[in-house]
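Purpose: get a first structural picture of the assembly so the mutagenesis plan has something to point at.
Setup: two entries, given in the order below. No constraints added.
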Amino acid sequence: MNKILRFTSLHFNSILFLIFFNNSFSNYRIRESLVLSSRMICTNIYFPTFLQVSTPLLAEPMKKKKKMDPQILKAREERKKKRIEKSIKKLEKNVKQLKPIEEIDLSISLQKEKWTRERAETVPEPLLRQRQNILKAWCTYKYQQHLQEMKMVDRIGTSQSRALEQLREISENLYIGAIQTDSTLLPFTAVGPSSTPPLNNYEVDGEYMDETPKWK
Amino acid sequence: MSSATTSSSSPQKWELLGAICLERTPIIVPPMTEIEQQISEMIEKFDNMRSLKSNHELRHEEDKKLQKMAADGNQDDSNPDAATRQTAQDFEDACNEEFLKFKPAPRTTAEDLSGDQKSTNRKLDKHLLFVVQEKEKKVWKLPESRWREGETLRETAERALREYVKTPDTSVRVLGNAPWGVHTIKYPSSVRQKLGFTGVKVFFFKAQLLSSCTTCSDIEYNWLGREELRNSLEPEYLRSVSKFLIDED
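Result (C-alpha cells, whole complex):
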C-alpha cells in the first residue's frame, strides 16, 4: 500500500507536494508519474531528491473550520425546537376552537335581564285539557298518514319491480340498461312547495349583502 | 303474474313501447286539514307562553309606563322629546301598513277559473300529468314511442317526449333508468298471427317538469289532475299508470 504524504512549504507558497513512497522505507523509491489528478507533482526515479513542481494550483487550501462552542450550538438548537413546538401548540389550539352558535351563546347583558323578560302567565286548566285532546287526535292522524304513505311506497315499489321482471323476460340487455344507476340524479335538489306561488316580475328592492361571518 | 304464464307456454314476441309520465309537481302546499290547523294554532300558543319577551315588547311596556306618568301629571322634564318619540305601537302600525301593501300571488290562478286544461299554471297544489291524444283513434294516453334497436328503453321514452314537446333537456328531469310501471295489451288471435306479436308492452318512465315547456302545435294535449285522468284515460290504462303515481289527499 502506498502512503500519501502532504507537505506545505512557505518557500513554495502553499503548493502541495505529493510524494509517493513504497510501504517499506528500506527499498525506498519514488514512482514515476503516478497520475492521480491534474494537481499531481511529478518526480524522477533516477534522482529521488530532485523534486519537480507542477503548475501552481488555482486554489487555496481549505480553511480550517472554526470550532463552535458546543454549548452555544446546543442552546441554538434548543431555541429552534422551542419555536417549532410553540407553533404546533398554537395550531392545535385553533383546531379546538369551534364555530360559535349564537343561539346558545347568550350574551351576558341578556342573561342579566332575563327576569324582566319572563312572562307571568300560567296555563289555564281547560287549555291544558284541550291540548291533550288535540295531541291525541294528532297522534292518530299522523299514524294513519304514515300507514298510507308506507302503503303507497310499497305499491310503487311493487309496480317498478314487476315492470323490471317483465322487461327481463323480454330482453336481458334492456334489463341491464334499466338497472344502471343514474348518476345525474345525485345530488338531488327540489324547490319545495311554498304557501303562495312566486310573483311574476317581482322586483327585489334594495341591495342584499351577505353578512355571514366566515369561520376558518 | 300474467307475463310469467305467457312466457312459459311458447317464446312470445312483444312489441316494446317506451312512454313518459311527465308530471308537474305541486308549486304550493295544499290547504291545512282541520286537525293540522288546530295543532299549529296550539303549538304557537304554547310557544308564545313559554317564550321570553322581545325588545319590542319591553319597549311597548316602557311606553305604557310613560303614558301613565304623563296622564298623572308629573311630566318628566328630563325627557323633552317624549312627545315626538316613536312609540312601539307606532312602529308596529307602520310595519303592518307596509306589510299590507305587499300582495302575494293568489293561490288560485286565472287558468283555474277558466278551466284551461292546456296550462300548467293551475291546480298549483296538485300534481298535473301530461297526456296527449292519439291522432287516428282519438285516444288519450301518455306520450309513447316504439322501441328501436340499439337504444335503451329510457332513451325511447325521452325520444317520445321530444316528439311531442319542444323543450330543452334541462327543463325535464327523468327519474332513473328503470321503468316505473308496465301496461300490457294482448292482441286478439287474428291480429297476433298477422303481426307476429303477442301484444304490446308499454314501459312507463317518470319525469318531472322543472320549467315551462312549449308543445308542438299539431297535437292535442292536456295537463290533467288526478281526478280528471279518470275522464280521459281508459280504465285499464289508468290502472296501470296509477300504480306508480303518488297519492293525493
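Residues 125-170 of chain A form the longest helix (46 residues).
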